[in-house]
């Protein structure tokens, strides 16, 4: 007994001594003259770290807690929230011992999961069949996980989350099929499968890195296998190589098209450089720079420089041409700076760029038919207080037929805002004096017309002309006798130029010579006019019950008188005379072939007339709520001409008639013009050119033109059918645009359009035989089904009986893929293009196939 008591006392003493030893702390070395405190500053209690870093919130229709096993079970509508993660499932278990959360989707009677586990973290949603998460290591494992990434979806048999940035996946599929993404279909029409995939996520972007990856279409494996793939998902731009397309063309050999590199430059710029390489020597380099600053400006700069080689060197069919194209567009936001705007539309090409294209797109968009090309750069300055607008510009125009290039560099126009010459006495302007307005400004132009190979050479600068023009326009009007408007106007033109014309006859070469002299010269001209105008209305009503109720006629007749002196008089010095090859004294203006125009010759004292007409008809209509519908017979019908009292011969001008109207609910548009010669024209025997006599009153047709256009569509010929109400069932998945009747026949809206254009022009002048131009053009499209679209255009020359430019194309919406085919079957360029590829931007450059024909004159198709 004594031994047992002693043994217990010794054990207690040992425990106390041991605890005291553990509680001791090594004294800190204190400075001198400082007494150490006998109480330790460190707490002797060690707090055990909690297993969870945050509160674990749970809820479910049925919750059960197994205390001995430290397990929690959640059934039906179960939910767990932990930190930034939320788990929603049919069943969730929480194991406190293993720090593990396990979730499972809803099962059907056969044990198949019919509703997934939905895990949301950092705003990203994941769907899985089973999901487990370790709250301590923050790692997770998911089975049959599904997650969306930038327009695509990834599904994997097993996914392991190492941390918030790295996910490893086994047997993963990636697709951009929108029907599968939106869960309209349980199987994707295509996917890319890899046995091992790593998904790397950062704050601003994510990417997939795989080993070998294979393409499947409708679950069928294809031979398309890549050794590896990197798919970046990011809203921000990233540099990278652009994948080319490859093929073979008979004229240029094997090729790589679109091999290039993309590089973002700062926040507002990016650069793409593409190259086309052909084994027979042709090549193209196509850099493109885009820039954008929101609410300020945007633009694109592109270039296309290359060499086109065809045939075999040393043979007759061998050709080698260097071509180039430089294009720049710049647009300024209208709100960026209302007082200073800048715009550019530059497109400069070599003469044979479109005629010898390596790119069939220039044929399909009809660039090969271009005869001219224009470019312009414009800067406009406005002022808050100064009533003026200054516009500076440079323009460049090319003519591919003549090879000439017109350059205006620089140009400046200063326009003074219209102002009244006198102030109003009462605040309401009345009378001719108070209504006098002044418009003025001046224009400075530097102009040259030269060959393309002379641009910016000494030869071009020698041809450059400089001109300065000023115009002052005065105008006023008032009302006479309540129904007439009386107007007066005067125009003063002033001009200066740096070059004038000197004409003379060279007896040695037996030709008339135009000699351009470098000297400053100018002229001033003026003219004045007065006009009187009124408006007349007329109404012709028909008896009651008639289909036509009334015809309304509005007429606006006007008379005007214009006067200008004869500026060819010797006193002005604007005209000179020379003896031509026949020895006849011939007048000419020293400003001919200049850029400031030529002063008018001969006195003008002309009385002009113009009669404008507008004719409408009211007819009964059951479709209109008022019971009456207006039909425009002539929207405008104008008759005009003039009589020059000062003319020594032929005082009457041509009589011009112009009309415009529309029919069939404004669908058919008709524009026409007619020119009548009031004097008799006679022809000598065998002559092709006539002579205009002084015999008045014959009114022969000198010109006639009519243009018609009519846009047809499926909506014009019937009301749109409400298929949802008419037919009992609607298709599913891909057939959702079809409606089925009781016999299971599909119905859908088969929309179509057809634009018809026709034109006829006749011109005669003084020739015995007139010239005729007549053509009919068709341009339209039809949707054979909701996913098939056929389009095309053609023109038929009614004079030559030939088909002009014709294009036929079709497109097919193949769910995740798109198919396009374009064909030009006639003409100099007979080509086709076929394309099939993925719609999604992330794979559009990688997964595609393109086949095209080559252009070869007179080649059989």
UniProtKB/TrEMBL annotation:
<dbReference type="GO" id="GO:0009279">
    <property type="term" value="C:cell outer membrane"/>
</dbReference>
<protein>
    <submittedName>
        <fullName>LPS-assembly protein LptD</fullName>
    </submittedName>
</protein>
<dbReference type="Pfam" id="PF19838">
    <property type="entry name" value="LptD_2"/>
</dbReference>
<dbReference type="InterPro" id="IPR050218">
    <property type="entry name" value="LptD"/>
</dbReference>
<feature type="domain" description="LPS-assembly protein LptD central">
    <location>
        <begin position="208"/>
        <end position="679"/>
    </location>
</feature>
<dbReference type="InterPro" id="IPR045659">
    <property type="entry name" value="LptD_2"/>
</dbReference>
<dbReference type="GO" id="GO:1990351">
    <property type="term" value="C:transporter complex"/>
</dbReference>
């Amino acid at each position: 007994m004594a031994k047992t008591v002693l043994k217990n006392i010794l054990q207690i003493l040992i425990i106390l001594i041991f605890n005291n030893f553990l509680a001791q702390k090594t004294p800190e070395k204190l400075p001198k003259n400082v007494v150490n405190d006998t109480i330790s500053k460190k707490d002797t209690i060690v707090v055990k770290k909690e297993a969870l870093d945050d509160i674990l919130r749970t809820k479910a229709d049925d919750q059960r807690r197994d205390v001995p096993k430290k397990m929690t079970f959640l059934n039906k509508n179960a939910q767990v929230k932990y930190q930034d993660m939320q788990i929603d499932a049919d069943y969730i278990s929480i194991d406190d011992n293993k720090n593990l959360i396990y979730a499972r989707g809803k099962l059907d009677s056969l044990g198949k999961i019919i509703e997934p586990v939905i895990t949301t973290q950092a705003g990203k949603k994941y769907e899985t069949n089973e999901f487990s998460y370790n709250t301590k290591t923050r790692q997770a494992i998911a089975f049959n996980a599904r997650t969306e990434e930038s327009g695509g979806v990834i599904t994997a048999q097993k996914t392991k989350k190492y941390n918030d940035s790295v996910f490893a996946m086994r047997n993963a599929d990636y697709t951009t099929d929108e029907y599968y993404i939106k869960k309209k279909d349980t199987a994707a029409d295509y996917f890319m499968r890899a046995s091992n995939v790593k998904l790397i996520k950062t704050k601003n972007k994510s990417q997939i890195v795989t080993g070998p990856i294979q393409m499947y279409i409708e679950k069928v494996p294809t031979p398309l296998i890549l050794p590896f793939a990197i798919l970046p998902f990011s809203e921000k731009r990233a540099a990278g190589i652009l994948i080319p397309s490859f093929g073979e063309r008979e004229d240029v050999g094997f090729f790589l098209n679109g091999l290039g590199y993309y590089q973002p430059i700062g926040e507002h710029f990016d650069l793409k450089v593409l190259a086309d390489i052909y084994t027979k020597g042709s090549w193209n380099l196509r850099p493109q720079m885009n820039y954008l600053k929101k609410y300020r400006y945007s633009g694109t700069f592109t270039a296309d420089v290359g060499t086109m080689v065809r045939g075999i060197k040393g043979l007759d069919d061998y050709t080698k041409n260097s071509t180039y194209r430089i294009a720049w567009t710049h647009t300024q936001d209208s709100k960026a700076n209302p007082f200073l705007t800048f715009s550019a539309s530059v497109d400069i090409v070599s003469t044979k760029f479109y005629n010898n294209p390596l790119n069939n797109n220039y044929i399909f968009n009809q660039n090969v038919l271009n005869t001219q090309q224009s470019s312009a750069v414009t800067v406009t300055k406005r002022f808050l207080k100064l009533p003026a607008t200054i516009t500076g510009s440079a323009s460049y125009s090319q003519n591919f037929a003549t090879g000439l290039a017109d350059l205006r560099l620089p140009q400046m126009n200063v326009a003074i805002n219209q102002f009244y010459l006198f102030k109003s006495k009462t605040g309401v302007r009345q009378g001719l004096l108070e209504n006098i307005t002044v418009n003025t400004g001046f224009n400075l132009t530097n102009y040259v017309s030269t060959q393309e190979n002379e641009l910016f050479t000494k030869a071009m600068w020698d041809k450059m002309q400089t001109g300065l023009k000023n115009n002052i326009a005065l105008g006023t009007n008032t009302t006479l006798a309540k129904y007439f408007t009386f107007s007066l106007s005067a125009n003063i033109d002033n001009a200066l130029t740096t070059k004038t014309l000197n004409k003379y006859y060279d007896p040695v070469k037996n030709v008339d010579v135009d000699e351009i002299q470098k000297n400053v010269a100018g002229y001033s001209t003026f003219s004045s006019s007065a006009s009187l105008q009124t408006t007349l209305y007329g109404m012709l009503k028909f008896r009651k019950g008639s289909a036509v109720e009334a015809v309304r006629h509005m007429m606006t007749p006007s008379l005007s008188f214009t006067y200008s002196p004869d500026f060819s008089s010797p006193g002005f010095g604007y005209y000179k005379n020379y003896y031509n090859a026949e020895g006849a004294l011939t007048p000419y203006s020293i400003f001919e072939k200049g850029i400031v125009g030529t002063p008018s010759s001969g006195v003008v004292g002309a009385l002009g007339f113009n009669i404008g007409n507008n004719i409408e008809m009211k007819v009964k209509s059951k479709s209109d709520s008022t019971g009456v519908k207006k039909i425009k017979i002539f929207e405008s019908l104008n008759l005009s001409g003039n009589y020059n009292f000062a003319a020594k011969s032929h005082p009457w001008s041509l009589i011009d008639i112009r009309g415009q109207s529309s029919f069939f609910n404004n669908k058919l548009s008709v524009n026409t013009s007619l020119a009548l010669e009031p004097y008799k024209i006679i022809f000598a025997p065998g002559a092709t050119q006539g002579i205009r006599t002084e015999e008045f009153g014959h009114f022969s047709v000198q010109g006639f033109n009519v243009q018609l256009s009519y846009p047809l569509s499926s909506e014009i010929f019937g009301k749109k059918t409400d298929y949802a109400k008419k037919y009992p069932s609607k298709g599913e998945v891909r057939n959702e645009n079809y409606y089925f009747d009781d016999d299971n026949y599909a119905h859908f809206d088969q929309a179509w359009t057809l634009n018809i254009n026709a034109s006829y022009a006749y011109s005669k002048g003084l020739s015995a035989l007139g010239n005729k131009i007549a053509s009919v053009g068709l341009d339209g499209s039809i949707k054979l089904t909701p996913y098939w679209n056929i389009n095309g255009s053609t023109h038929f020359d009614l004079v030559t009986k030939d088909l002009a430019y014709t294009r036929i194309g079709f497109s097919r919406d193949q769910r995740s893929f798109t198919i396009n085919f374009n064909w030009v079957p006639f003409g100099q360029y007979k080509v086709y293009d076929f394309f099939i590829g993925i719609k999604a931007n992330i794979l559009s450059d990688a997964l595609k196939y393109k086949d095209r024909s080559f252009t070869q004159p007179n080649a059989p198709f």
